[in-house]
Amino acid sequence: METLIKGIPELFGKSIGITKNDEVHVYVDVRDGEKLPCPECGELCKRAGYENKERVWRHGDCVFFPCYVHCRRPRVNCGKHGTKVAEAPWARKSSRFTLMFEGYAMLILSDMPISKAAKLLRCNEKALTKILRHWVSKAVAESDLSNVTSIAMDETSFKKGQSYVTAVIDAAERKVIDVEEGRKAQTVIDFSLMLEAKRGDCTKIEYASSDMSSAYKSGIDFCFPNAKHIIDKFHVKKELLDAMDEVRKAEQRELKAKKNAVSRKLLMIPQARQTEAQSLKIAELSKQFPKTGRAYRMVQAVDILYASRTMDEAEINFKKLHQWLKKSRLDPMKRAGDTLKKYKNEILNYFRSHLTNAICEGINSMIQAAKRKARGYHTFEGFSSMIYLVAGKLKLACLNPLR
To answer: Within 13 A of 287's CA, how many CA atoms are on the CB side?
Structure first.
């Protein structure tokens, strides 16, 4: 009995009934003569009747049956605020679920798609989304960002088409600290304002990692004057991989090769991860498609650049790679060389802190996997709440029914 209705003070009386529909119903009333706190000031006041209609809250299941708490909340007569309806101590204001049910729902949502969670908990997805948004928003609002000094940001797709959100990550703590709509310079500005509002300091940001987006670059330069902007090495290599793919397609069209066409997927495998058979296959194809073979070797030279141990060594390797790209006589690779030259300082800043967006990519994969399982979120607020839940390492204030 006490476990079932945990959170209901002793000044309330309880009774339980099981209906023919295999449902457990708990009926709560107030003991005679008990005083209740005013919802405005908390002062204990005399009762002044009840509200007109009985309210029902969904509680955690009892012996696998859905459980509901029934109560006509009492009114109290406060000398300062007049007659008020007392709040139910087992539920938050305006919620139709008990605190214990919401705590259990948050445990389920952290590990299960929202559609499956709705079936398991026997409630609709909209109700679960509201519970998720409330507790996540509360935890995010109470977070302290005063110790943030290094950040990484990356966009992730939201809906089909050009719809994105930007996730900002505390590189030291490896957790999402902000989710903003879009991927513009204003997105970075909005994050900086949020950072300052949560006791953070934009002037204390030492390193900021991102992709090659000019919007991110301009936003970082404007908002974080003391930060060294780092272009993530994943995106540097991707720039060359895309250029190599252009070379591959053009050469295959030129030679009208169909049977022994070079696979993009094969060329994207790093040398360190290639099997012996894959290495031999690439060597053979490089002879048959010499332009693609040269472009492939340029891409692999990026790994040599990032293996540099010092800034001086990195500058030498960057210069060699850039000269090779410019003299390659392959237009896509020459354009990629121009892009690398444009972002030279941001690329070499990596060797000052070795900060990368690897944590962003890992979190992005978690977000996309959760989104696919949940079949997407219809609103930015719901999607951002899910991102915080799976990757924000939040300290949720909701009850944990397993404790």
So the answer is: 5
